[in-house]
Write a structure and sequence with these properties.
Elements: E1 2-15, E2 18-23, E3 26-32, H1 39-51, E4 55-56, E5 62-64, H2 66-69, E6 72-77, H3 99-117, E7 122-124, E8 131-146
Parallel strand pairs: 3-6, 6-7
Antiparallel strand pairs: 1-2, 1-3, 1-8, 4-5
Helix pairs in contact: 1-3
């Protein structure tokens, strides 16, 4: 499972011209689910993202996580993160999870994030939709986090 996080001052998701979710300061997470992922990868990645220290402390050092910063989390499913880009000039998607499995793990991830941060601090995209994602990257600060690779 892969998560591309961006520290944002604001972010939103629009589907069919309607804004379905928006956050102020916090993290935008683009979440990719691979075919060998399971509930433990969702749990581990969620814990890692919520505890990852990317917000400044009093000295301006990245030493505060999203939980302690009071920030929000906007979770957007993005199957293209699971693309195989190792050869050629066109991505392959054989590594991506099947839609039903990916959506299940995505929903599990959202539930866990809401349990940790609170319902009002977690927004979500719409699985399978053509989404327009807007953000103001603060920094810019962007990191790719992944769960441990399988043998």
């Amino acid at each position: 499972m892969k998560g591309l996080i961006q520290r944002v001052s604001e972010a939103s998701v629009t589907v069919d011209g309607e804004k379905i979710s928006a956050i102020g300061p916090g993290l935008l997470l683009l979440l990719g689910v691979e075919k060998d992922d399971a509930q433990n990868e969702a749990r581990d990645l969620c814990r890692k993202i919520l505890s990852y220290r990317v917000f400044p402390d009093e000295q301006g050092r990245m030493n505060v996580n999203v939980q302690d910063s009071g920030g929000s989390l906007l979770i957007v499913p993005q199957f293209t993160l699971a693309a195989d880009t190792g050869s050629g000039t066109r991505p392959g998607f054989s590594l991506a999870a099947a839609p039903d499995m990916a959506n299940s793990l995505y929903q599990n991830f959202i539930a866990q994030a809401r349990a940790e941060l609170g319902e009002d601090r977690v927004g979500e995209g719409q699985f399978g939709a053509d989404m327009k994602v807007a953000l103001v990257n603060d920094g810019p600060v962007t990191f790719m986090l992944e769960t441990g690779k399988k043998g």
